[in-house]
Amino acid sequence: MRRRHRAIDAGAKCCMNSGAHLPAAVAQLLRELIVGGARSVWLIGSRANNCATDRSDWDFLVFQTEDPIPTTARQTGVDVLCVGPSGRVLLEGQPEDFGFALSDLQWTENERGFASYRGKRFVEYPEMQTIDADAPRFHRPHLRAQRLWPESHNDDDA
Predict the structure, then answer these.
(1) Which residue in 36, 37, 66, 113 has its CB near the most CB atoms, within 10 A?
(2) Domain ranges in the chain?
């Protein structure tokens, strides 16, 4: 259990190193994810990519031992994407048909506690603008993720 709390402290430290502050409610949610059996927890999105604003939410990718099922979102301002052994990803608070495959993100982990992936954001076009049928619907930026739990591949979850 001590190692789990150290992971939260390390998560807070890594977030602070990227200019973000880990609020107590978010730290508590991370503890719940870890105690709930997460295999690993990753910080993704704007806070992991040094482009967060004061209004940015917290985005976590959680690898778990069972495939995700639709659940209620845990907390406003926090997005938890759950990944099961099949590679199926589902955002908490969304229905089953909003799920997608982890391979869509082109997720690649490295040994230093980081991963690279391709984000997926809708391209916003001005209202009333005629859009060419070949115009991109999504922007796919190259992004990074930071592992919060376990602290390394060698740590067990005890």
Answers:
(1) 113
(2) 2-149
